[in-house]
Structure to design on (271 residues):
């Protein structure tokens, strides 16, 4: 689905993760998301941006505004050129972690979104896309 | 800055009697979360604090990293003989946390600072020697 507008943000530091949250919040606000939906999409963005930073060694996050008939949505894509995820199914499962986290990042982001997609291969990097509709 | 270094960012920790009060009013990036965790544990020991109250009413999100840090703080404080209460969580944050799968195990919460303080006092009273049998048998 083509995006009505888009913006790409670098994810290379803690501050960048905060910036991703702030921009996502502003977009959700602009699109008239409820406070709960704003909070969900911003939280999902925070989880994925942190994954990109910590597991992917940095990368980029792209925000896209989607229109489908009267529906409005935000699509977020996080991409890195890191080591990739050998077993994606395992990575989505709660409690699975290679880092110091709780292993809720991917599974949590999926639950907070309406659509979730992940593409990863070892040595090639990882791309996670989520969409939240208003 | 005279030395050219950026100022060290930190979240103020206020001492009030045997309590430590923390009001988080800035956007929490991960390094700041870790700093708070370290400083709080140090100050609990330094001030022999018995209670820690963390006000998160200004936080627009609590993601898994921040949630885990709150749990760590509560657990570390407990080991150091202090009670922690997290107060003021916004309703959308609570809804999102549950959906995220984070149940903040081991973290006591209260609606606001007043209720949180009452909860800490109550817990401390309950663990005072000689108060356990206050109700009689």
């Amino acid at each position: 689905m083509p995006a009505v507008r888009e913006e790409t943000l670098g994810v290379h530091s803690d501050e960048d993760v905060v910036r991703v949250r702030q921009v996502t919040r502003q977009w959700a606000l602009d699109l008239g998301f409820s406070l709960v939906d704003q909070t969900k999409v911003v939280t999902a963005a925070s989880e994925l941006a942190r994954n990109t930073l910590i597991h992917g060694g940095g990368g980029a996050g792209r925000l896209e505004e989607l229109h489908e008939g009267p529906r409005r949505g935000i699509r977020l894509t996080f991409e890195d050129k890191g080591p990739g995820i050998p077993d994606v199914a395992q990575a989505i499962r709660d409690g699975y972690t290679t880092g110091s986290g709780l292993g809720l990042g991917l599974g949590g982001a999926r639950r907070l979104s309406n659509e979730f997609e992940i593409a990863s291969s070892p040595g090639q990097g990882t791309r996670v896309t989520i969409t939240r509709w208003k | 800055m005279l030395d050219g270094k950026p100022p060290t960012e930190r979240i103020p920790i206020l001492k009030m009697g045997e309590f430590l009060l923390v009001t988080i009013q800035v956007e929490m990036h991960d390094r700041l979360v870790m700093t708070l965790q370290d400083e709080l544990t140090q100050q609990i020991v330094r001030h022999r604090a018995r209670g820690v109250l963390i006000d998160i009413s200004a936080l627009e999100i609590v993601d898994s990293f921040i949630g885990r840090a709150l749990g760590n703080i509560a657990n570390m404080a407990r080991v150091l003989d202090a009670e922690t209460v997290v107060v003021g969580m916004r309703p959308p944050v609570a809804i999102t946390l549950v959906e995220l799968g984070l149940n903040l195990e081991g973290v006591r919460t209260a609606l606001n600072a007043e209720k949180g303080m009452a909860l800490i006092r109550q817990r401390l009273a309950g663990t005072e020697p000689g108060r356990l049998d206050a109700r009689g048998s």
Notes: Chain B has a mean pLDDT of 88. DSSP finds four helices and five strands in chain B. Chain B touches chain A through 23 residues (CB under 8 Å).
